[in-house]
Amino acid sequence: xxxxxxxxxxxxxxxxxxxxxxxxxxxxxxxxxxxxxxxxxxxxxxxxxxxxxxxxxxxxxxxxxxxxxxxxxxxxxxxxxxxxxxxxxxxxxxxxxxxxxxxxxxxxxxxxxxxxxxxxxxxxxxxxxxxxxxxxxxxxxxxxxxxxxxxxxxxxxxxxxxxxxxxxxxxxxxxxxxxxxxxxxxxxxxxxxxxxxxxxxxxxxxxxxxxxxxxxxxxxxxxxxxxxxxxxxxxxxxxxxxxxxxxxxxxxxxxxxxxxxxxxxxxxxxxxxxxxxxxxxxxxxxxxxxxxxxxxxxxxxxxxxxxxxxxxxxxxxxxxxxxxxxxxxxxxxxxxxxxxxxxxxxxxxxxxxxxxxxxxxxxxxxxxxxxxxxxxxxxxxxxxxxxxxxxxxxxxxxxxxxxxxxxxxxxxxxxxxxxxxxxxxxxxxxxxxxxxxxxxxxxxxxxxxxxxxxxxxxxxxxxxxxxxxxxxxxxxxxxxxxxxxxxxxxxxxxxxxxxxxxxxxxxxxxxxxxxxxxxxxxxxxxxxxxxxxxxxxxxxxxxxxxxxxxxxxxxxxxxxxxxxxxxxxxxxxxxxxxxxxxxxxxxxxxxxxxxxxxxxxx
Amino acid sequence: xxxxxxxxxxxxxxxxxxxxxxxxxxxxxxxxxxxxxxxxxxxxxxxxxxxxxxxxxxxxxxxxxxxxxxxxxxxxxxxxxxxxxxxxxxxxxxxxxxxxxxxxxxxxxxxxxxxxxxxxxxxxxxxxxxxxxxxxxxxxxxxxxxxxxxxxxxxxxxxxxxxxxxxxxxxxxxxxxxxxxxxxxxxxxxxxxxxxxxxxxxxxxxxxxxxxxxxxxxxxxxxxxxxxxxxxxxxxxxxxxxxxxxxxxxxxxxxxxxxxxxxxxxxxxxxxxxxxxxxxxxxxxxxxxxxxxxxxxxxxxxxxxxxxxxxxxxxxxxxxxxxxxxxxxxxxxxxxxxxxxxxxxxxxxxxxxxxxxxxxxxxxxxxxxxxxxxxxxxxxxxxxxxxxxx
Lengths: 602, 390
Prior knowledge:
By secondary structure, chain A is mainly α. Chain A has 23 helices and four strands. Chain A is globular and about 95 Å long.
């Protein structure tokens, strides 16, 4: 209803009834709201929408920045060496999506629909990949299945010495196999989170009805279970597809000669300084993710319509065979995840793989390595911290203004649209778009007109890194903030206005404390993602401002895989440590701000 | 209401409001008097809540104006108007204690903390929650939470109290108690109060005046008694209380006689303006129907008992006319019969009895007005509708 509210402009003659319209009195408080809305909108325009303009125009221009229409796209598809990557990206994404969603579906059902033991452990194990940069899975896989990997060499010949014949097995890691293995790890937790939520939406009454009507378990599965999670399944499919299609880290490490779009952009821009082709590929990278995003939004909308009423939550009953099977299934997957991530740890500690297997901390020294060593690590921590703080504050403000104020309705609709947009933007596209937008000293508008770029001084600074991260991870954070705000009573603002209390006081005294768990969660999300991300920042870091995730890429490129593994371990540990600190803080803080939730027995 | 000639507190002048294509309010005009307890009553979607929100400044009217004691306040935001409001959802601040909730609006005014504390204490006493200062809303029952919301709204001593379905989320017994308390509190404080409800019983028991609304328009304004006894339209008659509707034919020559189910009935209200031999609808409340011992009285119809419900203080009889040879509409009636009545010993399903329809109680409406809205619902148990009844 709020967004359909009548426009607030005054003195408009009414179309049919020619009565004089009363004047709306605008208070200082409302001016403050308008000012805030306009400011936040400006930030969204500068951070998200405007940077997309130059990258789009570049893909339609030649090196001299003259308009050439679709020539670049024709050029791209006429060069098999390039267009091959598009097909590669597609096939890898489709296969990974099918495998990951299938595995996550079983895992989600084991977590929500069985009474198997060890659920907290399985939950934590499945989320582990979220704390690692995607290059780390690649490194883990290399040490397991690479040319000198544990499995490839039959545990470095140990099995041969015991059994007397070669027991090594080479899965031909580099290329499609490796990318799919790594990407499955990468998107498994994402798919799992969506499917767990979907599985939890199940209505126990439907299962009871099915049981009473004596449907077979198989029939129940197809008539109750699958329809119940179909939106979640589709959503998981789209999210996984987009993640894999745009990921840079895994193909960079284990892709070998198997090129995908994300690595191509990197090669075009960093290797050949060909910004035109980089932009063209970026738009090609963007198109399927935008499509997936639109389909996902349509599905999400349908789901909110379909599950409007309150369902009775399903309480799984113990079933020995099913619970045992679920336990074995989850244990297999959890162990696989832990082995791959754990291998990264081993790789970081072993002296010279596979020749000197003694343990050492020398890889954590980083001296003489490219990438920037500890300076890069501290920079990453600082960047993640700043992103968390500024991101959480800005995101919450934005969601609050859209959700809880009534001023400038049209601008707030635009704000909502801009807030959803980053979901469809791959990190590489954001990074490249930021170069084009922030780097030039002046913006060309048309062919003759130029204006000086007031934001050029941001280029190469910490600020642009933080900004790109906030933009990159904005939508998910924004949606959590919106969800938290929607759960508050819609009349809180009306009640305080009736008491003459300005909105900022109520915001500070009521809204923020009530939403504190969500705000902390958003900050945490920004922190972890900023630590592990490489796609946007790889175009934006400067030689004076190196980053840990970029260092992993560069050290791995240079053959210093052990050092890359060590840096990965630092990133993983800091994210996990931050998660624990967050857990501790939120527990303490929530005891104070959320005291109202604790009912006493009366 | 005050004894003196009433002072107009709020004047609503031809307010219109629509949301996209849906018309929420259509040319609504209304005077609200100083100190009265006014109810906006109507089914959901009739525009009553929209009108309340426009009074509060939470919605903007498309056209028309609101005057508070003669001053135009139409364009003022809520913070510049002088009112307290209570919502169905309570809208208490969950992270603040009861005392902090009540003090919330006072803290922004320049009042010393001692004064605030004593005001909070006074308010808690008033709503009967002394000793609950340090509780959080989640630790209170629904009824207690609504009392806190009321105390919070009244703490700032507003000139006008707006209540948006404040009792609808509560269970029946709490609702009945709070009903009495709110009404007596309102009379004690003498504060002009506008309450929105869809519950006709609330409106009848608590209001000084009721404004019945339907489809964005005001259909009747009056005291509870006026509304109940002289409903202006079949809609009002049906929405407020229970009503029997009898399809009849106006008789030519005699302006005060109609034919109903083959029986001629005398009415007091003239059906002037309705052409003879045209269908009309008579309306009579179940408690106005007299179940007779002897059958000789005028305005009497013989009916058969179709169903009996024992309600405690009375039997509810569902009566219908045994099929007659005439083609006229059958009469279906609901009547109440106290168990103490001499007739009640003989009642049984299928038994024929006579009912007297007193002429002063028979209201006449044009037939079309009724059939348009109620025509199809008279299928099983006569044309009586059942709003909430305890």
